[in-house]
Design a protein that fits this description.
Shape: globular
Structural class: mainly beta
Strand order of the largest sheet: 1-4-5-9-8-7-6
InterPro entries: DUF427, DUF427_sf
Order of helices and strands: EEEEEEEEEE
Number of strands: 10
Distance between the termini: 29 Å
Radius of gyration: 13 Å
CATH class: Mainly Beta
CATH topology: Metal Binding Protein, Guanine Nucleotide Exchange Factor, Chain A
Number of domains: 1
């Protein structure tokens, strides 16, 4: 793994909400720390209500993690474009995040430990 990336099991149970709806809850979430960036919580895809997510054409590349795919969150009042990302085929050094989703920190999305 890149020396500046650390992946550990996130302690406790985590939830993600958007537009008043609970998108998921997990006690199997992962915490990814990368350099000086704030930690990111990754949720197992199986713990997220995928019906609220719509795959987008957006992609990005990280030299340490690989290619990311994006999803928009569909709420009752609006669509939060490209608010979720996933590494479908991450680099071997971060293979733990395969089949996990992460959510951007924004006013309309709350990722919280419960």
């Amino acid at each position: 793994m890149a020396s500046h990336i650390k992946i550990t099991k996130a302690p406790g149970t985590w939830t993600v909400r958007a537009g008043g709806a609970v998108l998921g809850e997990s006690s199997a979430a992962l915490e990814l720390r990368e350099g000086d960036y704030p930690p990111v919580i990754y949720f197992p895809r199986s713990d997220i209500a995928m019906a609220f997510l719509d795959a987008s054409d957006e992609t990005s590349h990280c030299p340490h993690k690989g290619d990311a795919s994006y999803y928009s969150v569909i709420t009752k009042s609006r669509t939060l474009s490209n608010a979720v990302w996933s590494y479908e085929a991450p680099k071997d050094a971060v293979s733990e995040i395969k089949d996990y989703l992460a959510f951007y920190d924004m006013d309309e999305i709350a990722v919280e430990q419960i």
